[in-house]
Design a protein that fits this description.
The complex is a heterodimer of chains A (about 110) and B (about 120). Chain A is mainly beta and about 110 residues long. Chain A contains no helices and 10 strands. The N and C termini of chain A lie far apart (about 35 Å). The chains are: A mainly beta (about 110), B mainly beta (about 120). The interface between A and B is medium-sized, with 25 and 21 residues.
């Protein structure tokens, strides 16, 4: 069973700053099986990145994903007010899906 | 436009049963695998179960295996989750979510969720 660990737990930043979120897997993950989601309070998660680096439909280009193997990163180049939310990474392995515990991006 | 609408949540006593439904529209339902994902109050996302487009293949998280059953009726464009022997730690918002495609293992459309509360 692959476990995803996200860091930091909380990121306190100001609008306009760059956010770098980490997702580390306990074993190597196939890149096409790695995704990132954004969730705002009271809302369902929204797919941001799939295949580790491909933006989902309608996602602004300030969001980017990178990484391979066991280390993956979600970067928000310049934070907009609507980007303050919780972000989850997700992987698939041997018919099981798993999510990281989430990183909260809050306004400093 | 893809729409997923869950229903069937509510308050149930420990040991009880509940069946969730997810009505799908805006896409060819039978062509896509579907998933249930839950979120306990104030907690993160937890994958619960998945089912192939035909319904012939199903998978479960260890935490629900033997108690929950996922199924689908492609003629009604509806996904189900039968939950038996419910426990307090099954309390959560349950989301149905559509798998993006055959090649990409991510969930591109989510319902609004339905709340299940297990309490006496």
């Amino acid at each position: 069973e692959i476990v995803l660990t996200q860091s930091p737990g909380t990121l306190s930043l100001s609008p306009g700053e760059r956010a770098t979120l980490s997702c580390r897997a306990s074993q190597s993950v196939t890149s096409s099986y790695l995704a990132w989601y954004q969730q705002k309070p009271g809302q369902a998660p929204r797919l941001l990145i799939y295949g580790a680096s491909s933006r989902a439909t309608g996602i602004p280009d300030r969001f980017s994903g990178s990484g391979s193997g066991t280390d993956f990163t979600l970067t928000i180049s310049r934070l907009e007010p609507e980007d303050f939310a919780v972000y989850y990474c997700q992987q698939y392995d041997y018919s099981r899906w798993a999510f990281g515990q989430g990183t909260k991006v809050e306004i400093k | 436009e893809v729409q997923l609408l869950e229903s069937g949540g509510g308050l149930v006593q420990p040991g009880g049963s509940l069946r969730l439904s997810c009505a799908a529209s805006g896409f060819t339902f039978s062509s896509y695998a579907m998933n249930w994902v839950r979120q306990a109050p104030g907690k993160g996302l937890e994958w619960v179960s998945s089912i192939s487009g035909s319904g012939s293949s199903t998978h479960y998280a260890d935490s629900v295996k033997g108690r929950f059953t996922i199924s689908r009726d492609n003629s009604k464009n509806t996904l189900y989750l039968q939950m038996n022997s419910l426990r307090a730690d099954d309390t959560a918002v349950y989301y149905c979510a559509k798998k993006y495609s055959t090649s990409w293992y991510c969930l591109d459309n989510w319902g609004l969720g339905t709340l299940v509360t297990v309490s006496s």
